[in-house]
Amino acid sequence: MAQATIGDSEFDRDTAVTPREDEDGVYDAHLSAGWTIIHAVNGGYLLALLGRTLGQALPHADPFSVTAHYLTPSAPGPAVVRTQRVRTGRTLSTGQASLFQYDENGAEIERIRVLASYGDLDALPDDVRTTAKPPAIPPIEHCLGPSDAPAPIPGSSAITERLMLKLDPTTLGWAVGAPSGKGEMRGWFGLADGRDPDPYSLLLAVDALPPTAFEMGLTGWTPTVELTAHIRCRPAPGPLRVSITTRNLAGGFLEEDAEVWDSADRLVAQSRQLARALRTP
Amino acid sequence: MAQATIGDSEFDRDTAVTPREDEDGVYDAHLSAGWTIIHAVNGGYLLALLGRTLGQALPHADPFSVTAHYLTPSAPGPAVVRTQRVRTGRTLSTGQASLFQYDENGAEIERIRVLASYGDLDALPDDVRTTAKPPAIPPIEHCLGPSDAPAPIPGSSAITERLMLKLDPTTLGWAVGAPSGKGEMRGWFGLADGRDPDPYSLLLAVDALPPTAFEMGLTGWTPTVELTAHIRCRPAPGPLRVSITTRNLAGGFLEEDAEVWDSADRLVAQSRQLARALRTP
């Protein structure tokens, strides 16, 4: 199979939306069953779809800061995105988007609300004074994915077929019943069809690894309450390195901080989410 | 002067809003000139005012995750806050708020838009499994505030009279012309009238220290594009310790990560903002 390209890949097709001709800023969407974990639609896929929609609705195409509040669980199938231009500026524009699905009577139910500021990543100066260092992750051939024994990722999930996800074995103890107790998850990330990363796929990357809670010995679901992603640089072609850290699990909530580094060793995205640590039933 | 209390302090009076009897969810406000830095109204004060307003508008009173996009500069004077209930849940409710001021023709100009989820901090279980450690800050008597030579904080700002801000001398090099080059700012934080912290004053605390950019040798303004704060615990009485870190200054933007610790050594708030690093004129 030829390598997929940006604009012509499964990810691009599954995040495409169609503007309604009779309603300005309203887009019809279809949530693909191909990006589900167990039965839940992956939050990063939904963020990418909404981020791409806002990129069409706003005068600036690149997400700089995107915040999503997850209101009700999304399901594969038809959806509508209603966008609003909040402010249009020279270098930054701010917009809002809501994803709705339909109940049995056809009434709209809001799934996710997003508030975001967009700009032009290619217009940024080249100055870099970061003190951040790329995460220490073994070479990709020494990392493990769903297809690799002895540490298959539990749960049959359609999304695993669409991702190139190779996790650092030192953060995979949970998969063999021996969680490290540390709130860390690291690995290599790409799209299975070889499509290179772009700012929208970075929104998928920040929420695509297994939850750090697994390495902390929790087995329950950790649904996202809110996730904010900062896209800091257009990613270079090639696989990404993603590092997720949790420092504070308290009161039944935890934060997950994600860093995404590209093949040019640039910190291309930072994100933080607040998630609930639900008791195992 | 007797110590001010929660509900009866300058901070409480200056963040109070009045619901309009004829418009549900709409509140009149007055932005106090007492919380300005040079001529700009402090972003943390504005976040606290909006956070408190949403606490009145939503069925839950405590901010859990609050995101603000700063659209246009606020000025002291009259303002109006328009709120919307996005979702009401059993443990969490989500709401939106916009702060408007008026142009010379009386037309509303949006200053800030907030999207937030609220809950009940007192209803959270006591489990704490944090690996985070409190920042290493010298005893308060060894830290320096605006009134302490040899490191007064430049710029005459009304807000400095309302804060108890004592900064770690190791992050004050910028004030004596010798910035460390590190993106770090640490100190003790409280309200000058002795009012104890609560979830709303934590929203002030996360954006009240001098910008980390000063210690990185930048002298220009670093306006906030977006700030997200997670309130993780109701703070115990007494002074707070605030630590702010910047790891990635690139492309004319930087993130500022803040941690707030209370007198009981609990991590009570985490925040991250994306700010622009403007060239000095």
From TrEMBL, chains A, B:
Region of interest: Disordered: 1-20
Domain Acyl-CoA thioesterase-like N-terminal HotDog intervals: 32-117
Signal peptide: none
Domain Acyl-CoA thioesterase-like C-terminal: 155-275
Cited InterPro entries: ACOT8-like_C, Acyl-CoA_hotdog, HotDog_dom_sf, Sec_Metab_Biosynth-Assoc, TesB_ACOT8-like_N
A Pfam family assignment: 4HBT_3
UniProt-listed PANTHER family: CHROMOSOME 23, WHOLE GENOME SHOTGUN SEQUENCE, THIOESTERASE DOMAIN-CONTAINING PROTEIN
Record-given protein name: Thioesterase family protein
